[in-house]
Amino acid sequence: MQFWIFRNAKFPFLNWRRKAYWVSGVVLSLGILAMVVNVFAIGNWQSYGVDFTGGTRIVVELPEGVVEGDLREALGGVEAPPITRFGGEREFTIRAPLEEGVESEETAERIQAQILASPAIPDFEMLQIEFVGPTIGEELQQQALLAILLSFLATLIYLAMRFEFRFGVASVIATVHDIVLTLGFLALFRIEISLPTVAAVLTIIGYSLNDTIVVFDRIRENLNKKGGRREDPLKLINRSINEVLPRTVLTSGTTLAVLFSLLILGGAVIRDFTIVLILGVVIGTYSSIFVASPALLEIQERWGTKEEAEKRKRKKARPKKEEAIPV
Q1: Residues 24-70: pLDDT tens digits?
Q2: Which one, of 162, 167, 163, 198, lies nearest residue 183 by Cα?
């Protein structure tokens, strides 16, 4: 059963595409600006975790009455490595970067000794220790980038075979938009880039493509109907978006409901992963309507088939009927 608001929906989405371009442009500019600021502030365009930069990651649980400030003072005060809350109120993650000539095991032992030497921390528990070398971190960065580029190529090939080449180009434009927008948010809020975060970005690609393909499939169906090729592309694409709007909203709504539940109840372990997915679902739904479909329209109008171009020329060249002069 469809919501009453979507019954016979006739929202002029493509008529709003210029405003959507401005929205996307402003948000993309903010994200790119945040990346540039990060280069000067933290030395990299994103806040990479030890998965990519290499180093030692230690999770500790402090006793009751001990606060984060005590832990920071024990590790050197302002010179202490980055410390963030991990799960519960007394669990913290210490991320120590690689040091030249110092083994990761030595770094972990030094941090443990510093905490034990602090009179403000009578006891603590080491919950987790991870070591990542610089070579592994660099390889992970290259593999993550390669995975994203291969997904673009596979998308273009699939949609070119399944639909038409112009559909594939429009979907790749929308997917690039989604990824850059998501990376902009990550840079703006300095969310740590880890392996789960990369997995979330790849999931976003799949979700965004799925939503776009649903819209494109309806456009293709309407194009292949009798008289579909002669219909104004703007009206046809608008009608197609409205026809699948109930499915788009319901799918996104139920997915977001699950993700918000994970964000609230899942804890800090999957918090960043969930935040990226929430951003991806919102951005993917937006882009399938306001980026992929307008991109398809622009491609259609500029580089459509010869037959379609000739029809548009004849339509523009057709003289207007003279109005009858009343007697």
Answers
A1: 999 999 999 999 998 888 777 887 777 677 778 888 888 888 888 88
A2: 198
Residue 263 CA to residue 278 CA, distance in Å, equals: 9
Query: Which of 286, 49, 59 lies closest to 181 in space, CA to CA?
Result: 286
Domains of the chain, by residue range, sit at 11-39+137-312, 55-132
Q: Give the per-residue pLDDT at 207.
A: 82
DSSP assignment string, 144-201: HHHHHHHHHHHHHHHHHHHS-HHHHHHHHHHHHHHHHHHHHHHHHHT--B-HHHHHHH
Q: Rank 14-18, 39-43, 168-172 by mean pLDDT and report only the highest.
A: 14-18
Kindly report the number of other CB atoms within 10 A of residue 92's CB atom.
23
- CATH no. for 55-132: 3.30.70.3220
3-state SS assignment for residue 327? coil
CA atoms within 13 A on the CB side of 293: 35
Residue 136 has pLDDT above 70, yes or no: no
- How far apart (Å, rounded) are the C-alpha atoms in residues 135 and 133? 6
11-39+137-312 carries CATH number 1.20.1640.10: yes
Task: Give pTM, 2 decimals.
Answer: 0.72
For 112, 126, 239, 287, the CA distances from 129, given in Å and listed in that order, are 11, 8, 55, 40
E strands, the chain, in order: 55-61, 83-85, 91-97, 125-132
Portion of the chain with pLDDT greater than 70, in percent? 82
Q: Looking at residues 76-81, what average pLDDT do you find?
A: 75
Q: How far apart are CA 4 and CA 187, in angstroms?
A: 39
CB 292 within 8 A of CB 163: no
Residues 49 and 194 sit within 8 Å (Cβ to Cβ):
yes
How large is the angle between the packed helices 293-303 and 17-41, nearest 10 degrees? 110
